[in-house]
Amino acid sequence: MTEMKRKHHIIYRIPLYEIDLGNALYHGNYFHLFEIARDDFWRSIGFPYPRIMSLGMHLTIVELNCRYRKPLHYDEEVQITTHVEKMGSRSLTLRQEISRPEKNEICTEAIINMVCVTFEGKPTRLPEELRSLLEKWK
To answer: How confident is the model at residue 3 (pLDDT cuts 50, 70, 90)?
Structure first.
């Protein structure tokens, strides 16, 4: 039996200003949704992003792979899911999915690789308290 990963969910309604001329969410705007969900994820685990910054560090995205499966449209209510794929001493990989929960349909998925760096850009270890909180999400 395979273990289910713990996942964080938010609900978001697609606003008109994010829509392109083809009447779908503009491809670059998906990243806004991923960012909104990640920000909420940090808060929900008890380590809001401003706290990371107060330690003189941040999580910089070094690689992001996005797969668009089905377009999203104005006024649709979608669910954005975030979970931890893997974690190193200085790195973190999150998987995020945007879905239509009423149809059990994944529309977009992203794998985001991040590295913890100081404000000077030097790689550094993830804060131990953050690592401990993230362990519960692996």
So the answer is: low
